[in-house]
Amino acid sequence: MFKIESVITDDEAKILVLSDRLFHDALKDKPSSKTRYHVKNDKGDDFDIVYWDNNDDIEPLDAYPAYVKPPFMDKYLVYDEHDKDTIYLDFFDGLKRMMFEELNEYTIAITKVVLDFTDLEVWCMDDRILWFIDENPRLHIVEEFPEDKFADDCFYIQEQIRVGMEDNNFNRLSNTYAFHNIFFIQWILNGKSFTQFKYITMPISNVGGIGALLSGYKRYQRAFEYFGLKFSAPDKDHFGKYPRKLVERYFSVNLWNEDASDENTLKVPDIVMFVKTKFYNMQPGLVDKSVIADKFMEEMDEYYDAVFGEKRTLGILIRGTDYIATGLSGTRKMANVEQMIPTIRQWMTDYGYEKIFLATEDADILSQMRKEFGKTMVALSQQRLSRNDLRTGQIISEYEKEHGGDDYAEKMEDTTVNYFYALYILSRCNAFMCSGQCNGWDTVLSLNENKYERAYKFKVGIDGDPRTEGWNVIRPLTAGMFARGTYPTDKAFFMTYRFDLHESVDRDALKQAWDRTVKVYPYVGYAIVTRSSQLVLAENPLPFIIKETGEVVESFGAEGNFHSVTLCYLGNTLWMYVDHVPYDGTGFMKVVETFFYNYYCLYDGCEYPVPEGVYTEKDGVVEGQDIDGYLMVDPIDPKKMMGALGASKSFCVPENSENSIFVPKQDCRGFCISVAADEFMNYAKSVKGSPMSVFNICFAKALVKVHPENTLPIDLMNPVSIRKIMGNENSLLHQVVHTMYTFDTKSLADADDVTLNTQYREHLKKFCSEENIKMLSGVYRGICEGYTKAFMYGALDKIIIDQRKSMKGKCGVSYIGTMKTGDYGNRIRMTAFHAMQEKGIMLQVTEISGVFYIDWYQGFHGEEYVKAMRDVLSEAGIKGIRIDRVE
Q1: Same domain as 618, residue 494
Q2: Are 338 and 440 in the same domain?
Q3: Are 143 and 214 within 8 A, CB to CB?
Q4: Cα–Cα distance between 42 and 47 in angstroms, integer?
Q5: Among candidates 412, 390, 393, 392, which has minimal Cα distance to 401?
Q6: Are 330 and 455 in contact (CB under 8 A)?
Q7: What is the 3-state secondary structure (H, E, C) of 815-883?
Q8: Which of 3, 359, 470, 881 registers the highest number of CB atoms within 10 A of its CB?
Q9: Maximum distance among all alpha carbons in the chain?
Q10: How many helices (H) and strands (E) does the chain have?
Q11: CA 628/CA 582 separation, integer angstroms
């Protein structure tokens, strides 16, 4: 697809002249992605067209399971927007209008089709379309689209990637998918005519199960009848992985045609591209009882009658194993047993079901369900697998082939019979529940012939955990996607705060103080849930977890009641576990300040003077607490800014294992170095430094102390808040950008501390310029939007893992600043503050009531580095240094 851009001077770009054949002339060159052409325009300003490979304009490649290989979209180097007979005009049935966001090759071609061959009206917001299409009373060039642009009678083409396969709503598509849905017939024919053929076929994957293949067979039959052709299996002896003899023994299908040949059979190039069309998805894939051989059906009926008789039975299908291993997303992400149990129990109680028939290929799921429901549950006796039996990305058919041995064919027959047995028995039950979209769901519903009392399919990949169903959605998650993109999305990514208080924690004061804090910061009460394949903030009606325990209660999912904060206490110690996705450390510190003010007012039975900058109930709800500064600037493609990163080699902490992607918690160590603020600041002033510069320089010197042999530069990562520049200083959100400061080991040894501090502060001043902060905010917005897109297609976890594989043991310093307190501040020691365990070393520094707390967390055992930091501070003349070992 060609995009239209402003002219960029480039002597190597080929020059074309604007004409009706402009894009076709350019496509003759078979351009590679990002090839640019200059266009001479006699109707207006000259412009450039830039070629995007269609595989770069659809969902991320990581969204596809590993067993599905690219390409995933045709290049469409040849097409004809004037050939009415080979354009799928039925696509527009029931539509009255079309609107598109971006003027490009495909929206221009589709507009020509619509104006030439339909009665639809067209709306666009780019008058350059008149360079390509003559004025037409049905072509409306407007400044804004009508508010009802997503109405059922409107075809909306949006720049953001969207495909209608998830919900069969093909009224909203991205550019490439819109074009494909209208021109796919030309892709199939490739210059030929349907009248030349008697049969039609397509490549059939050898990984699909029998249910999927039978459902596909029905759809292929009906679809190709539209072209006047009969579907024929592509292989004379197999249908997918199943031998012809097996299929014909158990099923009544007409797949093979003895007279089919290369000459009379049209071949659809690719099944993946074909199923991305409305044309295919609108075909009913009904596997009715007519596809089952009579003897096989009699056998299955006898089994059901013998086991269940007249007992009211709830059929449950739960897929695991390869549905987990391949990381399927959207409708095909399966609910787990824990998520399903409340609904199962409710149905058993409310509707009087006496028995459960469970169909699952997963041994772990069977064990969980049997533990929960005991003898109430019945399942077929068959060989089952566990998720741990499969490699990441592996599917069951691959595993079976690898472990089948000499009797692979016999095992396949047993598996096929058991699988279809289970589906058929499910179809005989009184009601049906399924863990997510799979071919089993479609097959069972079809076999049941609409006789169920009720049927329900979980959609955790689309609408999140069913326990959050119905919660009021506030808005999409935006800035928080940056943090969500650093840790697998099915795991908590949280910050740990540990406060050692002077007195034992008072539960009543703790709970009341937190209630008051949430009234001031209601954002803290929101949950992060999934809706329509997107992470959103939603109102959470469940109580916060406030528990007397020394164990971690993650602020994530059901364990934390879906809240972003959990509070745990034991003796004098208070832990706050805070989801890092909705907050950064600077933002959440505002919440902590309000909380401790409330807590000590309640604990001491008095009303302390309110510290300046701390908000209380008297102030009401704090304004601007959920404003995202990233959204104040236009997004910038992060790839444009990443060229220099990683280009030079720098020091990495050697103690971390390079083999592990994640560091287990038991392999980490935490420490707290506390120093008197006046001692520290006296030294900082003497070397013309700031807390930020001095902590970075001292840390770099500590690294040199431990590894004097190192000659590589030392890079320290520093997060910097954007709030002051963006004007959203009350925001709790993830509102930081990062600077990397590089220390040369020779300069660390030779330069005096005044010089080192001056150099760092000059760097930071330049980094914090308004222009730079706004530019980087645009980059971070681009990153967040990229992660949002990847999450929608289930690709984010794969991206995270790929990034983690190359992550080294780096180091960083984060300076949070001063926690505002009153006279009670000296009763609070902040002995731990860190995010999840990582390779390398991270220092989080906070000042509370005249003490700097350097909360130290490292991804390995040992005390050499923290002792070196102590020694560097001591050598600077700072006295009274204390080190605590904490978790």
Answers
A1: yes
A2: yes
A3: no
A4: 11
A5: 412
A6: no
A7: EEEEECCCHHHHHEEEEEEECCCCCCEEEEEEEECCEEEEEEEECCCCCHHHHHHHHHHHHCCCCCCEE
A8: 359
A9: 94
A10: 26, 34
A11: 11
Phi-psi domain of 393 (left: phi exceeds 0; alpha: psi -120 through 50; beta: other): left
Tell whether 135 and 237 lie within a shared domain. Answer: no
CB atoms inside a 10 Å sphere around CB 752: 9
User: Which is nearest to 203 in space by CA: 269, 275, 150, 110?
Assistant: 269
Distance CA 257, CA 448 (A): 30
Q: State the residue range of the domain holding 240.
A: 194-286
pLDDT band at 404 (very low <50, low <70, confident <90, very high): low
Residues 581 and 624 in one domain: yes
**How far is the C-alpha of 412 from the C-alpha of 115, rounded, in Å?**
53
Nearest to 791 by CA among 464, 494, 387: 464
- Please, are residues 315 and 432 in contact by the beta-carbon 8 Å criterion? yes
**What DSSP state is assigned to residue 309?**
T
Tell me the C-alpha distance between 122 and 159, whole Å: 16
Q: What are the CB-based long-range contacts (under 8 Å, 24+) for 679-688?
A: 679/878, 679/879, 679/880, 680/852, 680/873, 680/878, 683/876, 683/877, 683/878, 684/757, 687/752, 687/753, 687/754, 687/756, 687/757, 688/754, 688/757, 688/758, 688/761
Mean pLDDT of 218-229: 90
Q: Decide: 622 and 797 in contact? Cβ < 8 Å.
A: no
Least confident piece of the model among 323-332, 493-502, 548-557: 323-332
pLDDT on residue 121: 97
Q: Does a cis peptide bond (omega within 30 degrees of 0) precede residue 713?
A: no
* pTM score, whole prediction: 0.77
The CATH number of the domain where 353 resides is what?
3.40.50.11350
Tokens of 605: 């039975």
Tell me the backbone φ, ψ of residue 431, rounded to 5 degrees.
-145, 165
Neighbour-count burial for 396-428, b at 16+ CB within 10 Å, e otherwise: bbbbbeeeeeeeeeeebbebbbbbbbbbbbbbb
Query: Which tens digit of pLDDT belongs to each residue from 663-717?
Result: 888 889 999 999 999 999 999 999 999 999 999 999 999 999 999 999 999 999 9
Residues 324 and 449 reside in one and the same domain:
yes
Angle, helices 408-428 vs 210-225, to 10°: value is 70
- Whats the size of the chain, residue-wise? 887
- Quick one: pLDDT at residue 645? 45
Do 449 and 302 share a structural domain? yes
Confidence band, pLDDT 50/70/90 cuts, at residue 804: confident
Domain count, the chain: 5
- For residue 395, is pLDDT > 70? no
For residues 200 and 220, give the distance between their C-alpha atoms in angstroms, rounded to a whole number: 9
Three-state DSSP at 611 gives coil
